[in-house]
Design a protein that fits this description.
Quinone Oxidoreductase, Chain A, domain 1, Rossmann fold, 2 domains, 7-stranded mixed sheet, binds zinc ion
Length: about 325
């Protein structure tokens, strides 16, 4: 018995159905899943016309226990509690793999995209990039850290801000509410930006000192708060990028994370004359991932989760599409 959330073809539909329990190939382990978060990337992948692998089991932020190992699966053994991320495997020899930037490996495989995902009761995953996770915490509270937490933590770190500086976080969804907590842990002053008043309320609750509605956020942050030292844009909305640029102080840094399918027209003169640094940020390093779980264990950052059953996955993706999820939706098995 192995029920899974399966994307049947490009542009959907996503259905929950019975599939075979997979057998671990060389370097893989079979995992009995405890929980898996539903990520914006699942929605992005489900909306693509052409997919490298169909039908495709979705899901890439999972917590589970190893049931069976295979040769070359490292030191993992049955019973180990592990986390699975979007980075399923990488080549281990290219210049990016050789410099702890495996997430940019051109030959990487991604869970729930170019390799089978983990929104399933049982999944086979490569051991290469698994992470050991705390034993005691509920799986539902750990799962969002494998993607949302990891990505948000790295994006905040990559702003390079010193304590006391001001960071604007655009998008208060699954990543944003964690980014706020990581920024506060780094002793930054946080300005939270979103279109939804309920999400801004949540930001205030978890410690953002400034909350600003998305419309005209750039101008508001400049006029009322003197601008921000850095901004991370987590939403896939292209208008947020313009607002974030406008919010930056001179010599500010803009970190882009949200995957906007639209192009953005860069105001070149402002970018040059204000000495703006612009960078993309994708997932994080191995040590970022380990740190995210340490912070969860110490209670410094905790995701807000809504727990759901696997059967609800298609409906949750719809809700996410409409921007109706507060915090992170997690499937419990
Ligand atoms: Zn994700
Ligand atoms: Zn590589």
């Amino acid at each position: 018995m192995n029920r899974a959330a399966v994307l049947k073809q490009g542009k959907g539909p996503v259905v929950v159905e019975e599939i075979e329990v997979p057998r671990p190939g060389p370097g893989q382990v079979l995992v009995k899943m405890e929980a898996c978060g539903v990520c914006h990337s699942d929605l992005f992948i489900a909306g693509l016309e052409k997919l490298p692998l169909v039908p495709l089991v979705l899901g890439h932020e999972g917590i589970g226990r190893v049931v069976e190992t295979s040769p070359a699966a490292g030191s993992y053994k049955a019973g180990d509690r592990i986390g699975i991320t979007f980075l399923a495997s990488s080549c281990a020899v290219c210049e990016w793999c050789a410099s702890e930037r495996e997430r940019f490996c051109p030959k990487q495989l991604n869970s729930g995209y170019t390799s089978a995902g983990v929104l399933a009761q049982y999944a086979c995953v490569a051991a290469q990039h698994l992470v050991r996770v705390p034993e005691k915490q509920p799986a539902a509270e750990l799962a969002p850290l494998c993607c949302a937490g990891w990505t948000a933590y790295a994006a905040v770190r990559e702003t390079g801000l010193e304590p006391g500086r001001t960071l604007a976080v655009f998008g208060m969804g699954g990543l944003g509410h964690l980014a706020v907590q990581y920024a506060i842990h780094r002793k930054l002053r946080v300005a939270a930006v979103d279109v939804e008043p309920t999400k801004l309320e949540l930001a205030r609750e978890i410690g953002a000192s400034i909350v600003v509605p998305a419309e005209n956020a750039g101008r508001a942050l400049q006029k009322q708060h003197g601008g921000v030292d850095a901004a991370v844009v987590l939403t896939p909305s292209v208008s947020a990028i313009g607002q974030a640029l406008r919010a930056l102080k001179r010599c500010g840094t803009l970190v882009l994370v949200g995957l906007s399918p639209e192009a953005f027209e860069l105001p070149v003169i402002d970018t040059v004359m204000k000495g703006i640094t612009l960078r993309g940020s994708f997932l994080g390093t191995r040590s970022d991932l380990a740190e995210v779980f340490r912070l969860a264990e110490s209670g410094a950052a905790r995701p807000r989760v809504e727990r759901h059953a696997l059967e609800e996955t298609p409906e949750l993706l719809e809700k996410m599409h409409r921007g109706e999820l507060l915090g992170r939706a997690v499937i419990e098995f």
